[in-house]
User: What shape does this take?
Amino acid sequence: MDFVPGLELSRRFYEEAVRPVITARFGDLPHTAARIGAGSEVLGFDTARSADHEWGPRLQLFLRPHDVDLGLAGVLRDELPKTFHGYPTNFASTGDEHVRVMALTDGPVFHRVDVTSLDAWFAAHLGFDPRGEVTAVDWLSTPTQTLAEATAGAVFHDGLGELAPARARLTWYPDEVWRYVLACQWRRLSQEEGFVGRCGEVGDELGSAVVAARQVRDLMRLSLLMHRRYPPYGKWLGSAFARLGCVTAPALTAALAATAWHDRERHLATAYSAVARLHNELGLTEPLDTGTRPFHDRPYQVLHAERFAEALAAGLTDLRALPFTGAVDQFADSTDLLRDRTRTRDITAALTAALTGRRPRPAARR
Assistant: This one.
């Protein structure tokens, strides 16, 4: 069977199988149909391999809150076809409550047409409702992977007239938040620039390579942010970065492949300068020197990326008092934390509240 991209499969499933059931049993029931949220197909990265779990003919149906209990989910369970274009519409348990796989069944279909309301979906997946005011804490407490999942994918029918405008509001950060997040990403780079050379100088090539890999990851995320793209999580970061066609890609690849710290440092220096030029092209600050230079009185070549962080921070207004910790996935990378909306909001709110008005001191030389 030829592979059908998941978004296209979901669109056909809605139009050819789900919507006819809604019309036949509930008439002109106001609803919105979409495929958003978690799933490789939402970001357009799915392949035939994706069909082994949490992939298939599935979508979300958003109803008005008072219509959610009409019994639509049960009707679909009884009336949906057991296969659609060769794919089972039944999803069997794997023993993990969060993971199901397509499987044929002789009984009722355990479908993945999620019938819910926008109120419930936004609360569960974002932790806030983008149809109302979106605060700085809302933006900063939401991982970029989650923002990407909410704004990518597709809306097949917006009968409620609310999802498309809400997604449009989340398309990209407000200018002030964007500048702040960029500043914090530059700050991350500055904190370990000198370590590639320092580790190598004492014979720790493995440690130097680990630091370089961290710098490459942060440069990739910075490049996506500069191109107004929400960086996805690790599995798809490289795929998303590749779509940018950045001139830094060869240098970053070479830095990771290098076996000697001098080569590693040289390739990173090339990438640093290229990303610095991109910063200048954005026009968010006065142009900054894009060349690398020694790390203070030590011979390691660095950009001194804190210069870019400080220049961006100087142009902030409402967020100027915040520390350089940034959005939640700039200071935390635990998957268990980042997928918990309550904890990410609590931690971000506590951090920004506790440190508001206190600027961090320049990082000490090590």
User: Anything to note?
Assistant: The radius of gyration is 24 Å. Strands lie at 32-35, 58-63, 83-84, 87-88, 91-93, 100-102, 112-117, 154-158, 293-295, 298-302.
